Amino acid sequence: CVVELDDGRLMAYGRGGEVDGTMPKSISADMGQSWTIGASQFPGIGSRQRSVLMRLQEGPILLVSFDSDGIFATVSLDEGQTWKQRKYLTSDTKTYLAGKQSPNRVIHIIASIINQHYSFNLKWVYDDYNCP
Fold it and tell me: In this model, does residue 59 exceed pLDDT 90?
């Protein structure tokens, strides 16, 4: 999964090829011609999993991914430098995810293998945090 940062660089979180036991975080300053790869703060994911990374209409970046507790959503307000908290959608962990934000700002996540659809908004992810 990949998202364009405000400064035009690309940021991606990958699966497989863990870095220091974490999901690899990659940055490209040349639209994907070359990448700088490092460790992220998220657990690595396997071949039966696919995360979602997207910029929301409100401005923050959303990551929906997996850890040992299930599928979580988290939002970065500073271009992927920090992620404040995780909100869990389900305890399932083996599925491919796809996501889209509708014009009314509702975020839709589809989990293909478990055949589930989740809908939420930015406020739900950070109900106790000051979000745009």
Answer: yes
